[in-house]
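I'll show a record.
***
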Amino acid sequence: MLLQAISSGSTWTEILIMMAYLVPALLIGFSFHEAAHAYAAFRAGDPTARNLGRMSLDPLRHLDPMGTLMLLLVGFGWAKPVPINPRNFRTPRRDEFVVSIAGILTNFVLAFFAMGLYVLLSTKGWYDRLGVILNFLIYLVQINVVLAVFNLIPLPPLDGHHLVTAVFPRTERFYYSIARYGFWILIGVLFILNQFNILETVVWSIINKFYAFYKLFM
């Protein structure tokens, strides 16, 4: 995002204003995403994340330096993975899937309701009085959809590869073999997706569908 803003000729004042919206939205999105993983794991019988303080909405417990930097710079990134011990799960395969998708679904839910609040307030003609709040809601929607879509990519360290192994256990050997290169493979895939604006297209398609849904009732 920052690189795009700088390359588009945005002034430093405009960039600072963008950061004032972006950073809080980012902290909320990351915190709810990772806390949802930790809570789902706890409910499935694994207290590992809770015992390590990860079942929390404190963003400092969840931020990954590189993942946060990537999100700020290019618009896609990740938080520090929540530690889990599948041996504690009551139904390992099912619970691994539920835990992995919990964060993704939480981000989609946050984005959906933030969009609803945005549409409600904006259609009341309160933009002049609530412009700051409405701008923040749009950033909150965007960040949460980005986190949800990005984490569906089936590559480590993202949630997508856990979803794949939960459904197709035989892929575990493949992921184990590429684990040490996972970060660099992910960077390469991101570069390709960014070149063709694939992720951006998917993200804004979802955002527009959320908006269209609420406009049906306004």
Observations:
- The mean pLDDT is 88.
- Residues 2-215 form one domain.
